[in-house]
Amino acid sequence: MMQQSSERTWQEHLRAKGHRITPQRKLILAAVAQLPHPTPESILQHLRQTEPTLNLSTVYRNLTVLQESGLITHAHIGTGSAVYHLADEHAHLHLNCLNCGRLVSAAASIAADFAREVSAQTGFLIDPTHAAVYGTCADCARELTTPAAR
Amino acid sequence: MMQQSSERTWQEHLRAKGHRITPQRKLILAAVAQLPHPTPESILQHLRQTEPTLNLSTVYRNLTVLQESGLITHAHIGTGSAVYHLADEHAHLHLNCLNCGRLVSAAASIAADFAREVSAQTGFLIDPTHAAVYGTCADCARELTTPAAR
DNA sequence: CTGTGTGCAAACGGTTTGCAAGACT
DNA sequence: AGTCTTGCAAACCGTTTGCACACAG
What we know:
- The structure is a homodimer of 150-residue chains.
- With 150 residues, chain A is α+β, with helices and mostly antiparallel strands.
- Chain A folds into 2 domains: 4-86, Arc Repressor Mutant, subunit A (Orthogonal Bundle), CATH 1.10.10; 92-149, Ferric-uptake regulator, C-terminal dimerisarion domain (Dna Ligase, domain 1, 2-Layer Sandwich).
- Chain A is built from 6 helices and 6 strands; from the N terminus they run ααααββββαββα.
- In chain A, the strands form 2 sheets. Chain A has a 3-stranded mixed sheet. In chain A, strands 1-2 form a two-stranded antiparallel ribbon.
């Protein structure tokens, strides 16, 4: 009736969903925590240095499992792969520059009013962190308005 | 020195970029105008009824050409294909429900303050219509909060 | 010991590309 | 006539799946 431990270990999260603890899962979770904007591919790359037989499908399967267990979340960034975050630290927006491809982060709180407004007008509850917002980054905007641009 | 015709025809748009006028381009542009949320695949489907030899790569190539010519734009809607719009009528947000997959449209103006805020804080000029925003639609939100949900 | 998880290879959906034949101008 | 565009097939990228073996419980 009372939630006694808000400090569950990652093992407990997995076990709670009936998943087993494997070295691969430990490694993949650690990689998500360490790497900057980890994609399945970059996670594999990173882990193959120490675990040469690790397979890409194992990475995919376990990212799904870790997500179902509430340990991580993902965000869609452009056309390529999704990027993953620890569930706690994903509270930021991704701004994806259509011109140079740069990925800029911004506080999720910027979107709070927007989310409220959308909810008020449509009933839709948005999660602005789930997918990147596209546009033009500050540098490219400057460059594109410069007469010398072309 | 003065722009004398703001009413350029689609042919003029293409010619201005050095592109030729072909029956395929005419058909594809018409399909983008008619179909509800046209994807490359649905455009092909539609046009093959009257033009059985039309090829998917032709659709892709011409969607790119029409876009470069300023006639159409595209938006990323979820994991699948992009959807296309005539350049004039794309001023709406796409809200993509993560639960049921439904696609809800909303006025682009809802995001105006959000865009201003992002610009003020990061210099990034966002185009909120370029990609779907994810979340939970009104129906699913209701359903998920219902005790009987699980 | 049982069944979940792993590695590998092959399939998959969406998109792009090389090439020769065809069509716009 | 010359070049851009088309159709076709094959390559491509990210992701998923079927299978037999391995390992956590």
